[in-house]
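in:
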């Protein structure tokens, strides 16, 4: 299965496209008697936005949590840059360039954007003087990332609790790319957003993909976000892959049909 738009041989001239950043195959995961993943697979290529869709309980969150090192798979193949990767903890995933933006964003409302960006990994100095210098360094780095994300207008000093849902989502994404990951996983990035804020998030994610990152998005927003803002759609059902589509080739209705059943094993992704 090729997963790129043009597919097949011509991609040999684009070596960066031919090797997945992350490849997970035949992943099994049980929680006690619940068999959450029954041979689920997903590949992520550089520059590609992959949507993971499916009904509640299909296994989307479990699959991305295995990718993020939150859950260890019971079995299956997990490769990064074509090499077997042993990802058992979130720190392992981070070390391999996999970053995650969780649905709750995990932002501290009383802190500003710079503080949130560096939360838990502050560049701390031993003296007040040192700390001040560190704050200045953090602001410079935060400004760089925000500019790269074309968010230069966003206040770095306002508490994020006073910001809109879209702005908060953007800050959570900025935090995920601070340490230059290769793959960013987003869980429901547009769930609480207005149409225009969701469009902004879509533009931002496309910008990251254009920079060569691989993006994995769990989303229920099939009819707007998934079909319009992603490149490939992997449909999960009962812990396994039910269908695979190139986003530009499908309607929301086709995707929903695959989510609920029928069209067994459809693969229109090329
Ligand atoms: N930590 C957990 N402990 C027990 N069961 C879980 C846990 N996480 C998920 N599950 C179960 O695994 C199945 C898949 O869940 P999940 O991956 O969250 O699906 P989705 O994200 O597609 O809604 C569900 O039956 C869910 O109840
Ligand atoms: Mg879920």
């Amino acid at each position: 299965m090729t997963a790129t738009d043009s597919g097949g041989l011509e991609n040999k001239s684009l070596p960066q496209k031919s090797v997945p950043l992350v490849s997970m195959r035949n992943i099994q995961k049980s929680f006690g008697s619940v068999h959450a993943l029954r041979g689920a697979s997903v590949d992520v290529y550089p520059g590609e936005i992959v949507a993971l869709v499916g009904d509640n309980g299909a296994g989307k969150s479990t699959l991305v949590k295995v990718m993020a090192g939150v859950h260890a798979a019971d079995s299956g193949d997990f490769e990064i840059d074509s090499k077997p990767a042993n990802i058992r903890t979130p720190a392992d995933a981070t070390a391999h360039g996999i970053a995650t933006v969780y649905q709750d964003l995990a932002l501290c409302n009383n802190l500003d954007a710079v503080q949130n960006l560096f939360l838990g990994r502050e560049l701390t100095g031993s003296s007040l003087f040192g700390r001040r210098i560190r704050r200045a360094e953090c602001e410079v780095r935060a400004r760089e990332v925000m500019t790269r994300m074309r968010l230069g207008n966003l206040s770095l000093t306002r508490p994020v609790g006073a910001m809109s849902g879209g702005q908060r989502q953007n800050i959570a994404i900025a935090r995920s790319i601070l340490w230059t990951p290769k793959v960013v996983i987003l869980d429901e990035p547009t769930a609480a957003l207005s149409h225009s804020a969701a469009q902004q998030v879509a533009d931002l994610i496309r910008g990251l993909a254009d920079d060569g990152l691989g993006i994995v998005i769990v989303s229920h927003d099939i009819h707007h976000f998934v079909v319009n803002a992603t490149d490939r759609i992997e449909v999960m059902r009962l812990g396994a892959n039910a269908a695979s589509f190139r986003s530009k080739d499908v309607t929301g209705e086709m995707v929903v049909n695959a989510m609920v059943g029928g069209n067994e094993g459809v693969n229109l992704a090329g």
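note: The pocket of magnesium ion (ligand 2) is lined by residues 60-61 (CB under 6 Å).
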